[in-house]
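hiii so um. not sure if this is the right channel but i have a protein structure encoded as tokens and i wanna go backwards to a sequence. like what aa goes where. can anyone help
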């Protein structure tokens, strides 16, 4: 097995100042990018820290005690996050997903959720506020999160076998505690709960059927995510990707499945229902079945950098506007002009890119902008 070379470039530093256009853009909720994709989904990373070290996201060899995590002063405050979120909502955002790192590590997160829960869409409806977590703190926090206005949670869980799970989170965290967290979230009414399992061929693909059997009939939607070449530190290789088509086949052989339609535009998961009506699964196939065509997601890093794609190499610095003397109208117009100039479609291009594509322009880390 050849030694993996993991380049380390602090991608967080590669951003351009967000420019305030000379002509203001009115917020109509109908903003779209160069491919006609509306802005509907905002993912907000509230911390760059995590208590797990999943190798496909935050490998321990890189994200160790000497890694330069962001100082607290660099993070957007809850008031700053809510102010910028308000502008996105006015441009059409209907769903906010809180991410990290591990978002539940951010102290008093409930305060932010309360502030975001007070916002209304352009149609005057409550926002769909959800959160992606590794589940390690859910048992303690589920009720308070629900009470603060959080509607749903997505829990990352890469296997049921305790040895495999501990190896994948690389901090020896027991699977039983995450399962307890999921039960606590279900009891608190944070549903429908979704489970995200990243499938890595040769590492945890033998967990596909045990996971399907375990969550079938539970009301929880299990999604299988193809292992992705996110960031620049996980040593990604195509031969470790198990195509979603094979995941579906493996399950279908034992638990017959029927294909379902998308439940919302821009949905990342392809839905499959159990033929006996006892629930559904999803597959998220960024590598083998790109879904950039209706990607309506923007990502805000924990220090206010706006990214237009999970595989972006450059952010747009909104914090300098937020902390400068920009008005809300100027901040709103800057966001509009950035989105209107968007043409990202990395997953569509991946297969056609030469292996050394982007040399020197590394992709941003998923732990920094959220999945
Ligand atoms: S690769 Fe980028 S543009 Fe395509 S679906 Fe993912 S985030 Fe959206």
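sure thing!! here u go:
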């Amino acid at each position: 097995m050849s030694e993996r070379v993991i380049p380390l470039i602090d991608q967080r530093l590669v951003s351009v100042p967000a420019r305030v256009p000379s002509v203001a853009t009115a917020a109509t909720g109908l903003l779209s990018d160069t491919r006609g994709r509306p802005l509907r989904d905002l993912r907000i990373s509230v911390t760059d820290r995590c208590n797990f070290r999943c190798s496909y996201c935050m490998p321990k060899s890189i994200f160790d005690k000497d890694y330069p995590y962001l100082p607290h002063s660099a993070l957007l405050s809850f008031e700053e996050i809510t102010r910028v979120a308000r502008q996105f909502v006015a441009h059409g955002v209907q769903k906010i997903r809180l991410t990290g790192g591990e978002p539940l590590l951010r102290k008093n997160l409930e305060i932010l959720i309360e502030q975001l829960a007070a916002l209304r869409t352009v149609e005057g409806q409550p926002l769909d506020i959800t959160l992606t977590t590794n589940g390690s703190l859910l048992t303690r926090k589920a009720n308070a999160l629900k009470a603060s206005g959080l509607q749903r949670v997505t829990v990352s869980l890469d296997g049921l076998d305790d040895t495999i799970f501990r190896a994948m989170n690389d901090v020896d965290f027991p699977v039983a505690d995450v399962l307890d967290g999921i039960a606590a979230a279900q009891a608190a009414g944070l549903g429908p709960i979704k489970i995200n399992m990243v499938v890595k061929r040769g590492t945890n693909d033998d967990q596909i059927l045990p996971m399907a059997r375990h969550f079938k009939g539970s009301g929880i939607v299990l999604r299988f995510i193809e292992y992705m070449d996110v960031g620049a530190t996980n040593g990604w290789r195509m031969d470790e990707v198990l195509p979603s088509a094979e995941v579906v086949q493996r399950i279908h052989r034992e638990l017959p499945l029927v294909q379902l339609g998308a439940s919302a535009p821009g949905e990342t998961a392809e839905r499959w229902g159990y033929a006996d009506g006892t629930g559904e699964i999803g597959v998220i196939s960024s590598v083998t079945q790109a879904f950039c065509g209706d990607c309506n997601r923007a990502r805000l890093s924990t220090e206010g950098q706006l990214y237009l794609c999970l595989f972006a190499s450059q952010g747009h610095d909104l914090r300098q506007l937020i902390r400068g003397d920009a008005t809300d109208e100027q901040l709103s117009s800057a966001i509009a002009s950035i989105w209107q100039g968007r043409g990202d479609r990395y997953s569509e291009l991946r297969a056609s890119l030469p292996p050394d594509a982007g040399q020197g322009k590394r992709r941003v880390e998923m732990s920094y902008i959220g999945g």
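oh and The chain has eleven helices and 13 strands.
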